[in-house]
Amino acid sequence: SQQGEEDPQALSIQEGENATMNCSYKTSINNLQWYRQNSGRGLVHLILIRSNEREKHSGRLRVTLDTSKKSSSLLITASRAADTASYFCATGAEYTGANSKLTFGKGITLSVRP
Amino acid sequence: NAGVMQNPRHLVRRRGQEARLRCSPMKGHSHVYWYRQLPEEGLKFMVYLQKENIIDESGMPKERFSAEFPKEGPSILRIQQVVRGDSAAYFCASSPQAGGYNEQFFGPGTRLTVL
Fold first, then answer.
1. Which of A3, A51, A73, B26, CA to CA, is 20 to 30 A from A114?
2. Phi and psi dihedrals of B16, rounded to 5?
3. Is beta strand B75-79 parallel, antiparallel or unpaired with respect to B19-24?
4. pLDDT tens digits, A10-35
């Protein structure tokens, strides 16, 4: 079954607007990570949030984690055309140690119009 | 410090041939993960290796697929007798032996096309 499920599946916004993407998961986790993938390219790690953290910031990125609701959100503020990409959330399971596999969602396609 | 290296970047094989995908982790990283991405899909875990050991192969198909991470040299994902359904992007990731908290660094991927 799909562990991380993002919504919306696709998002189109104007440059300068904020983009909010959500991720839900099913089982207990050790950590949750967000990645970006430009078309036909590899994944770029954006941010990791541990299960005992509630919010984390990195530049224009803000990630929240609500373990009671098993959900996370990624906020990109003041979006740019260069933010156009697919965004994936990935979870690390709780009981498999610090170097466990990641379970990915299907991703959100973000389009930022200039 | 070079990132995770994968080669080849593109690989074309005919049905029945063998495909070998190579991954060199980041310097100092001794944990390697292989993932497969089908078109319009997220990444699916295949196998997790440390030097000379397979730690978790729960995502590997039972037949035709194998992986290794020798003491010296890159990690290899080997697909024997490829079929069209094997066409996908294969990504390798690595993480450090100590420190970090499961942050995985991904390579650029190998795009396998089976004709």
1. A73
2. 95, -15
3. antiparallel
4. 999 999 999 999 999 988 888 899 99
Residues of B in contact with A50 (CB under 8 A): 101
| Nearest C-alpha in A relative to B42 | A106
E strand intervals along B1-115 = 5-7, 10-13, 19-24, 29-37, 43-50, 53-56, 65-68, 75-79, 88-96, 105-106, 110-114
Any CB–CB contact under 8 A between B101 and chain A?
yes
**Number of A–B residue contacts, CB under 8 Å:** 68
Other beta carbons less than 10 A from residue B9's beta carbon:
11
How far apart are the C-alpha atoms of A108 and B43, rounded to whole Å?
Answer: 13
Nearest to A48 among B43, B103, B111 (CB): B103
What percent of chain A clears pLDDT 70, i.e. is strictly above it?
90
Task: Please tell me the distance in Å from B45's CA to the nearest CA on chain A.
Answer: 7
Residue B37, CA distances (Å) to A52, A76, B57, B87, B111 in order: 30, 25, 16, 9, 9
Residues in a beta bridge with B33: B48, B93
The DSSP 8-state label assigned to residue B5 in this structure reads E
The Cα A83–Cα A64 span in angstroms is 19
Q: Could you say which DSSP state residue B25 is in?
A: P
List CB contacts (< 8 A) between B48 and chain A.
Answer: 99-101
